[in-house]
Amino acid sequence: MAQVTIRINGYAYTVGCEDGQETHLEQMAGDIEQRIASIKAIGGQSGEARLLMLAALLLADELYDTRTAQPPAPAAAAKPDPEKRAKLRRLAARAEEIAADLADA
């Protein structure tokens, strides 16, 4: 397990991650740092917990918008089962025979 030290709002945090994920973790921390900088620019200085909470809410809002903007993924088209298709044909043929018998009666 790798250890990465990230900086958010001037504070250093050592965080563990899977080997090879260090750059991704640093990019995520950079994204949070950008959110905090934008919050500070709008509303001035705030407490550490409040800044992190507001950054988390901004990210959650973006995630929500992304999820709701995307149409649901289409269900994978199931390949027709040859046995089921044959059974369905037999049932359809039998139903037509019954309908024909009823029409003749």
Describe it.
By secondary structure, the protein is an alpha+beta fold. The protein has a domain of 68 residues. 64% of the residues lie in helices and 13% in strands. The chain is built from three helices and two strands. The protein has a two-stranded antiparallel sheet with strand order 1-2. The longest helix has 23 residues. The termini are far apart.
Quick recap of the structure?
With 105 residues, the chain is an alpha+beta fold. The chain has 3 helices and 2 strands, in the order E-E-H-H-H.
Structural class of the helices, strands and pairings? alpha+beta
Largest sheet: 2 strands, antiparallel
Distance between the termini: 79 Å
Q: Helical element count?
A: 3
Give the strand line-up of the largest sheet: 1-2
Tell me the β content. Answer: 5-15%
Topology (elements, then pairings):
Elements: E1 2-8, E2 11-17, H1 22-43, H2 48-69, H3 82-104
Antiparallel strand pairs: 1-2
Keywords:
64% helix, 105 residues, alpha+beta, two-stranded antiparallel ribbon
